[in-house]
Amino acid sequence: MKRLFCFAILALSLCTSSVFAQKFSVAYLDMQYILKNLPQYETANEQLTMISKRWQKEIDTAQKEVQILTSNYQTEQIFLSADMKQKREKEILEKERYVLELKRKYFGEGGEWYNKRESLLKPIQEEIYNAVQEIANEKRYDVVKDRSAEPSLIYMSSRLDISDQVLEKLGAK
Asked: At what angle do helices 82-107 and 112-139 cross, to 10 degrees?
């Protein structure tokens, strides 16, 4: 009797949960594909690359100066007085700190590269988001997922992919 009662409650809960189950209309897009086909994204990436190369060159130059100072110090160390040794060591340490500060300033968390990347890419991301939102509203999609960010996605019907529609809305196709 106890088993029958438990079975009845289980059956009842399954029936009620299926009644309340919602069906979602889902679409997918491939953000990597979209970004690769947007000229403004390529332009932003090129700008970031140029800036990052310029900053890296500045850092490399400063690091070479540290290496030269260190090498010269090691070579001349036996000929230097205690005061001169201390002065040279201090100079090397200051230059090393300067290199670390440059790295942090340009490429560290919240650094100039991050801020520049944010300022270049945020408008592009907002355009994509607005295009996706328009398409989702027009086609009545409840959920739009990025298939390039879904590692567990094994198969997806091509009719659910709205990547080309997004590109058309953005004027890239």
From this structure: 10
